Amino acid sequence: MQIIALDEYRFRIPRDERRGMRTDVIVYASQALIDQIRKDQSLEQAMNVATLPGIVGVSLAMPDIHQGYGFPIGGVAATDIESGVVSPGGVGFDINCGVRLVRTNLTQDEVRPRLREVVNQLFRDIPCGTGSEGPIRLSNAQLDEVLVHGARWAVKQGYGVERDAEFAEEGGCLPGADPDKVSSKAKERGRPQLGTVGSGNHFLEVQWVEQIHDEEAARAMGLQLNQITVLIHCGSRGLGHQVCTDYLAEMGAAMKRYNITLPDRQLACVPIQSPEGQAYLAAMRASANFAWANRQVILHFLRGSLEKLFGRDVRVDLIYDVAHNIAKEETHTVDGQKRRVLVHRKGATRAFPPGHRDIPAAYRSIGQPVLIPGSMGTASWVLVGAERAMQETFGSVCHGAGRLLSRTAARKGRNAREVQERLEQQGILVRSETRDGILEEVPEAYKNVDEVIEVVHAAGLARKVARLRPMAVIKG
Amino acid sequence: MFEVLEHTADIGFRLRAPTPEELFARAAEALVSLGFESEGIEERQSCELAATGWDWESLMVNWLSEVLYVLDARRLLLKRFEVTRISPEAVAGRGYGEPWNPERHRAKLIIKGVTYHQLVVEQRPEGWYAQVILDI
After folding, report:
1. With an 8 Å Cβ cutoff, are B116 and A266 in contact?
2. In chain B, which end has fewer C-beta atoms inside a 10 angstrom radius, N or C?
3. CB-based contact, B107 to chain A, within 8 Å
4. Domain of A380: which CATH number?
5. With b meaning 16 or more CB within 10 Å and e meaning fewer, what string describes A292-316?
6. Is the per-residue pLDDT at A110 higher than 90?
């Protein structure tokens, strides 16, 4: 495969590399990362994405890219809103999987001596793990309201405060959601799962602010050295999984009618303006709203846990909430022309620059906060979106460190107790529902998050604000 | 018996069977055993299952998706499957197991979905063959 280095952090795979590609692939990576990336099929998958009808600009690969199914994870593609397609595989099974970061008025010195107590309290109060159910029982009508109003529904019900919704991407609610386009199977799966973290790579992490790289942006976000923050990583649970399953089946059958042939069936897509395309988008938005309500309810449980431990004066404020598996209608300038496009972000985070009207007023001068979780033994990062993201990547950057090892390989030769002890020696307590939950997410299973962040920072897509170190992780 | 496939972000399996009925039944069992320690599941109740598709591949994805739905929504852990009727467009059968009890049944991972990625379902000279990648 021909990969042309454009500069230190940009690589191009030309469209004539393979028949059917309608555009180039641009990969953001360092030389060391590109050498790793070439070991799996993620670049072939980014080339497959370049064959999608109506793709606008280039098929993009972020430095955390790794092999997914259909789209690579860490892939971004925009399609023309009138003539382009929508692909559920470009969003993924976990619709609006995302990250929410909160700050507290606690410091590392206050929390470290009580860390085990904190972990146990969080584990008691916040449902984690396979098949976990939350304490909220929703009627059919209430679930439909969640699907329409997202985090705003949760706040209205008392699971949060007014400013919480304001500080989530899209205000925690995508307009245009239609509960009638969500199957009864999806609703049945989602109904008991509101306020649950789930399993896999989803977690809740207590962290401390270890480094500040941009004083002004950190001030705007209320971040200080040694302060305690909490990161919540989860999505739309069984509801979103079922919506993706339902529409993949429908689109697979419908593609023939639209004369679409693709190199990978998992890329199944239909025209955005077709009845099937519109129905999927309405159901996807409903699932995204479920995910925002889910993260909002978890924030509410977190507040309760910290108040039990540290008293009523503890402050827990939302910094921001980002979606990293989603398709959104946005306006971007391409070749000097304003275009209305559907941006698929599959394992990629929106990163709008300073001045953009979709950023909360409190952050408009610094740019949109971008939250990048690392693995449980390393670090997470807070960035802000920068102008070059708008010029080159439809306002998008990476979403994490990116997996390096398969889950089977991560488990091989490792013992959960030893991993836990090693992390404890580094000051990190981990509590998981399952032994496999710890082994599959060992730090070695991931790329070096600092290296990934360095690429997006140096390429001018986003700027570093703060590095957060984990102290405690609870997961399924 | 099936072979587990390694995949960076996901997991999969490969299996062979003499008939399509056997292939689909064993595939459902493989799916459950990747998500749970299936030895502890007892056959106390059964559940009818059916799916449709437009070829063998889509039929397999829709069949396994039905099993996932029963697991997650009805919280029914099925360990053994029988397929009674099959064509490339429709499959029907029954699963045997018991209600999911987190005290007794250890979960291994959440399977989010059944993908078309590198999916193979076909008849070969030596018998029927399937390769399935799951999103976890």
Report:
1. yes
2. N
3. yes
4. 3.90.1860.10
5. bbbbbbbbbbbbebbeebbeeebeb
6. yes
Question: In angstroms, rounded to a whole number, what is the distance separating the alpha carbons of residues A182 and A160?
Answer: 26
B57 touches chain A (CB under 8 A): yes
Structural domain boundaries, residue A133: 4-475
User: What average pLDDT score do residues B111-117 get?
Assistant: 91
What is the structure's pLDDT at B66? 97
d(CA A141, CA A187): 11
- Residue A59: which of A252, A256, A263 has the closest Cα? A263
Structure token digits, residue A258: 């639209």
B133 contact A CB<8A: yes
Distance from the B101 Cα atom to the nearest Cα atom in chain A, whole angstroms: 10
Structure tokens at A357: 């009207």
Instruction: Tell me, yes or no, if B54 comes closer than 8 A to chain A by beta carbon.
Output: yes
Number of domains in chain B: 1
Chain B neighbors of A400, CB-CB under 8 A: none
ipTM for the predicted complex comes to: 0.90
CATH number at B44 reads 3.55.10.10
Selected residue of A191, A199, A242, A245 to mutate for chain B interface (largest B Cβ count, 10 A):
A245
Owning domain of residue B39 = 3-135
Structure tokens that stand for A294 in this block? 């889910």
Number of domains in chain A: 1
